[in-house]
Specification:
The protein is 53% helix and 11% strand. Strands 1-2-3-4-5-6 form a six-stranded mixed β-sheet, sandwiched between helices.
């Protein structure tokens, strides 16, 4: 539906061979593949001198994973389960400018690595940096969480708490992630009397974090 011309590979070795045989504007690389995994395949592609942007698809995006991906020459990573809007936005930012449908006003430096959650990971100092996508996404999740609370939809409360937890954890904002995890556990226990207070604490932590970022703390 985006109009991309796509060629598929069954495994990592086939992906490496494909990049050697033809010119590609971008590679989507699943990390978990039979035979040659995505990290090894990316490393082999880089060893040939091919600068093609590589976006990894992975369920494991913790700091140790980020270091492995960056060391292998991977430019960006989208976490599973795939959020298609996030993935398409990530693809747009890494396609050659002539192929982008909209300009990227904040391109990454070559030594940085981007995650679909909105985190830009800089391996030089190991620090995660939250970007505008993180704030947009977590604010939207908070709105949906409050709506679910008002309507008494426990499954939706747990889902949005989990999304906030995941996005905050990937972006290195532990205190927001911790509060969201407490709410997720409360739903699993059926402790509905604590829901409102926990949602309020999540909202306060997000608000405090935004204030700190804006003030340069």
């Amino acid at each position: 539906r985006k109009g991309y011309d796509v060629q598929t590979a069954l495994d990592g070795r086939e992906a490496v061979h494909a990049t050697q045989a033809g010119a590609f504007d971008l590679v989507l690389m699943d990390i978990q593949m039979p035979g040659l995994d995505g990290v090894s395949a990316a490393r082999l592609i880089r060893e040939t001198g091919n600068p093609v942007p590589i976006i990894a698809l992975s369920a494991g995006n913790m700091e140790t994973d980020r270091e492995r991906y960056q060391a292998a020459g991977i430019n960006a990573c989208a976490d599973k389960p795939i959020d298609w809007e996030e993935l398409f936005a990530l693809i747009e930012r890494h396609l050659p400018v002539s192929l982008q449908t909209k300009a990227d006003n904040n391109p990454l430096q070559p030594e940085q690595m981007e995650f679909a959650s909105g985190t830009v990971y800089n391996p030089k100092d190991g620090s995660p940096k939250t970007g505008k996508h993180f704030f947009e996404q977590i604010s939207q999740e908070l709105v949906l969480l409050k709506e679910a609370l008002n309507r008494g939809l426990e499954d939706a409360i747990e889902t949005h708490a989990r999304q906030i937890k995941k996005r905050a954890a990937y972006s290195g904002v532990g205190r927001i992630s911790d509060e969201a995890f407490r709410l997720e556990l409360a739903v699993r226990r059926g402790d509905n009397e604590s829901y409102a207070g926990l949602v309020q604490r999540i909202a306060l932590e997000i608000d405090e974090y935004v204030k700190e970022i804006n003030s340069g703390v």
